[in-house]
Amino acid sequence: MKYAALVYYQESLIAAMTDQEWHDLNQECVAGVERLTEQGHFLGGQALQPVESAVSVRLRDGEPLVTDGPFAETKEQLAGFYLLEARDLNEALRLAGRIPPARFGTVEVRPIRELPPRDPAPEAAPSRPPTGGEIP
Question: Could you tell me which residues belong to the region Disordered (predicted)?
Answer without folding.
Answer: 106-136
